[in-house]
Design brief:
By secondary structure, the protein is an alpha+beta fold. Helices cover 20% and strands 40% of the residues. It folds into two domains: 90 residues, 2-Layer Sandwich (Alpha-Beta Plaits); 151 residues, outer membrane lipoprotein receptor (LolB), chain A (Clam). The protein has nine helices and 20 strands. The radius of gyration is 22 Å and the shape is globular.
């Protein structure tokens, strides 16, 4: 069972669609538009072109849409977010791009169906080879995030800085003076923790297990396992539901007694998850996800996660960064002093 408690940048391939924003003469404006598109979860890049009689201009390309419906939905979202006209093109068998006239509004749930939307969401979140699987193939991982926790009855933002490379681990927990800060390091030759100004040796296996509770796969399980989550046996019975705070809702229509997925809310513009309700052995848990951004091919993470539990407890998490690297800096796993 997925552990719930711990919470396309190549040019469009043949028969795929891409969007092109209206050209601008200011490179900074194009870069800003590129960043907005990336923050919304769309792979984008800036291309410089020479227009006879006008000189150089810059165009933002948003690429790799598998079909016209996905391109149309993205065009609606980007025209709103960027304030720029988007035109669509199709590459047919690698030939010259063909202009496509898109529908003026994204498809709705009744027109497409629950299973088609779930498949779009699986693709949007990296499919079977993305997400946590892509992290497992990386040489090193650097993950930083802030979780708001309660210390002495007050909400305190606690920052976590996690490193992983092979069997080596490093975790810094910074409470900004509200609690005891710590540094944990584990390598093949030893493990240590520094807390309260003192360094103590620790068991290597226990330290790795403890530190990995703060790994992205554990903290962002819903996000990084989204494709697998949406491919579960219970989703075959999903149907469109009413009541979505935003987006389109698909689910079973109620909270079953057995653990499993109850419903998901999907953004019709991006096919990204907005809200997930999961029935755990401890009761229902709802995850509210926002600010999705692509950090690597097939890897999307939300900027914020809100967790709502059945007993009224709430948690919040803000992702600062998730980097997939070939190697960690040389001194990352040095013994604390």
């Amino acid at each position: 069972m997925i552990g719930w408690i711990a919470l396309f940048v190549t040019f469009a391939r043949a028969d795929e669609y891409y969007l092109e924003a209206a050209p601008v003469v200011d490179r900074a404006a194009a870069t800003q538009a590129e960043q907005v598109a990336e923050a919304a979860g769309f792979p984008a890049r800036v291309v410089r072109r020479f227009r006879l009689g006008r000189g150089w201009e810059f165009v933002v390309l948003v690429e790799s849409f598998p079909g016209e419906a996905e391109a149309a939905a993205a065009a609606v979202r980007l025209e709103r977010d960027l304030g720029m006209k988007m035109t669509a093109w199709r590459l047919d068998g690698g030939e010259k791009p063909i202009s496509v006239a898109l529908a003026q509004s994204p498809p709705v749930a009744a027109e497409v169906g629950a299973q088609a939307w779930l498949e779009r969401a699986r693709t949007a979140h990296g499919g079977p080879t993305g997400g946590a699987g892509a992290l497992a193939r990386a040489g090193a991982i650097h993950f930083t995030y802030v979780r708001t926790v309660e210390i002495a009855g007050k909400p305190v933002p606690v920052r976590h800085d996690y490193w992983r490379e092979g069997s080596s681990r490093r975790l810094v927990v910074d409470t900004a003076g509200a609690g005891v800060d710590s540094l944990s390091v584990a390598t093949a030759s030893g493990a240590w923790i520094r807390a309260g100004g003192q360094v103590q040796s620790r068991d290597i296996g226990i330290t790795i297990g403890t530190v990995d509770a703060f790994a992205p796969e554990a903290v962002l399980t819903v996000a990084l396992e989204a494709a697998r989550l949406l491919d579960g046996t219970e989703t075959t019975a999903f149907r469109p539901l009413e009541g979505a705070e935003s987006g389109l809702r698909f689910g079973i229509g109620g909270d079953e007694a057995e653990p499993g997925l109850a419903f998901v809310d999907i953004d019709p513009s991006t096919a990204q998850l907005l809200r997930v309700r999961y029935i755990s052995e401890a009761g229902p848990i709802t995850f509210v996800l926002s600010g999705w951004r692509r950090v690597s091919a097939g890897v999307l993470v939300p900027e914020t996660v809100q967790v709502e539990r059945s007993d009224g407890r709430r948690e919040s998490l803000r992702v600062e960064g998730l980097d997939l690297l070939d190697r960690a800096p040389p001194s990352t796993f040095d013994k604390p002093t």
